[in-house]
Design goal:
single chain; 279 residues; 9 strands; 37% helix
């Protein structure tokens, strides 16, 4: 099934759906929901060229590697190893879709969906620094765990969670969506499966010389649509989804980092050709 074309009305409906979901006051089920399909205690990350990884990015990644001493597993992939993983577990179609990802951020977006569908675990971006003394609770239960975000169009800034998560908080300039970082899932999660299917089709539909918008194709926009579609078609999304309202207690995005000033920053390279001549 091909993804429906987006429209301002679809965008508004999706934002309102997410607002209601993240603000809704309901008794959360225990994080350990008793299902046998628990989330593997693996932290997964991606940097497109490990041989040319900036020192400041390595420092961020090392903050997650340290959890190996506490019994967690850490896996770091690059463009080559991600392609091997996708080819082995999915085959030619998905490998070709990955090859259509023209920027490292887009590759990371697509790869995390592939990895989590097969193996499960906690995917976190390479620019996140773990500040928590305990991450074990993030792996409890089998529901997909996602971080809510809210963008204020008028101010051009992100709204604070302390503001937009308040019940009934609303501003007509706010856009609610789900981040795809972190992404915590058990193996074979249906929402991850839907998000991967959507991203694959969108990459296939792009013309040979087309560079599709990253967020909408493989990133948070695609994930938000996948969650919205899941609830629209099947309902009861809350039985499959847990909103991480306190991710900032576990990790922070380090800013600035050296790569943010060049083409490796997707915000500077969205819908532009990326030349792989550096780390």
């Amino acid at each position: 099934m091909q993804p429906e074309p987006d429209s301002p009305e679809h965008h508004r409906q999706r934002s309102e759906f997410i607002r209601n979901l993240v603000q809704r006051q309901f008794v959360q089920e225990p994080l350990d929901d008793g299902l046998l399909q628990a989330t593997p205690r693996t932290v997964v990350q991606f940097w497109h060229n490990q041989r040319q990884m900036p020192d400041d990015v390595k420092e961020c990644i090392d903050s997650w590697v340290r959890w190996e001493a506490k019994g967690f597993k850490h896996r770091l992939f690059d463009e080559c190893s991600a392609k091997v993983f996708i080819d082995h577990n999915f085959g030619v179609r998905h490998k070709q879709a990955f090859e259509c990802c023209y920027h490292p951020a887009m590759q990371a977006d697509y790869f995390r969906l592939c990895y989590l569908l097969v193996e499960g675990g906690l995917y976190v971006d390479a620019d996140e620094v773990c500040i928590s003394a305990d991450i074990g609770c993030l792996f409890n239960g089998s529901r997909l765990k996602v971080q809510p975000l809210c963008y204020d169009i008028d101010s051009g800034t992100m709204a604070s969670p302390s503001v937009f998560l308040s019940v009934d908080a609303f501003d007509s300039s706010w856009i609610f969506y789900f981040n795809n970082n972190p992404l915590i899932a058990c193996r074979g999660h249906p929402i991850i499966e839907n998000a991967l299917s959507r991203a694959t089709i969108l990459l296939e539909l792009a013309g040979k010389n087309e560079l599709p918008e990253i967020q909408a194709t493989t990133g948070p926009g695609n994930l938000s649509k996948a969650i919205f579609e899941f609830d629209t078609i099947l309902g009861c999304v809350e039985s499959e989804l847990l909103v991480l309202r306190d991710w900032d207690a576990f990790a922070i995005s380090k800013w600035p980092l050296s790569y943010r000033s060049d083409a490796r920053n997707w915000r500077l390279s969205n819908q532009q050709k990326f030349y792989r001549n550096g780390g």
